[in-house]
Write a structure and sequence with these properties.
Layout: H1 2-8, E1 14-17, H2 21-33, E2 42-45, H3 52-55, E3 62-65, H4 75-81, E4 87-95, H5 98-102, E5 109-111, E6 116-122, E7 125-134, H6 143-151
Length: 173
């Protein structure tokens, strides 16, 4: 995925990480061979993903997690790398049915669409892609409570010119 994404030139930076040193070597070689096609910088790392938050700022708006047998275990790591406004995670997992692909997801990982079956894996087992919206750490909002307050007209309204922050309101996701 990393080379294709970097070839579009849309991201400011593409980070590819794999704990397998052979995969890292292959990625570096592929990047070298395709260097003329890359339009975005590509950073290739060979780390346990749990270490990424120590090295990378929480600035990512899209994360691909293609370790189908253990991707859900790394969702907290992905969440800590999300940009302040949140991020979209494309999580790949092995399951027998779409419903099973959604099992074990934390409440702060909201599916954006039904799981998509992308590959046959074994008899009656498939690899699914689950697209999730993650809220960044420290910015959890009870959406139902906000919706209820808006519906009931309970939002606090301040007279013009008396708002905090120089007349600018605060908008939370």
């Amino acid at each position: 995925f990393s080379l294709l994404i970097a070839s579009t030139g849309r991201p400011r930076l593409v980070v590819a990480n794999d704990v397998n040193p052979h995969a890292v070597e292959a990625m570096l070689e592929a990047a070298r061979l395709n260097a003329s096609r890359l339009r975005s910088p590509l950073l290739v790392l060979g780390l346990d993903a749990r270490r990424l938050p120590e090295l990378l700022a929480p600035a990512y708006d899209r994360i691909i997690m293609n370790l189908p047998h253990a991707a859900t275990e790394f969702l907290p790591v992905a969440r800590s790398l999300c940009a302040p406004r949140g991020c979209v995670v494309h999580l790949y997992t092995v399951a027998s049915a779409p419903e099973e692909a959604l099992q074990g997801l934390p409440g702060w990982a909201r599916p954006l669409a039904p799981p998509l079956r992308v590959l046959d894996y074994a008899p009656r087992r498939f690899i699914y892609r689950v697209d999730l919206r993650l809220r960044p750490l420290g910015r959890v909002v009870d959406e139902q409570r906000v919706a209820d307050a808006v519906a009931a007209g309970e939002q606090r309204r301040e007279p013009a010119g008396q708002r905090g922050g120089g007349g600018r309101g605060c908008n939370h996701d």
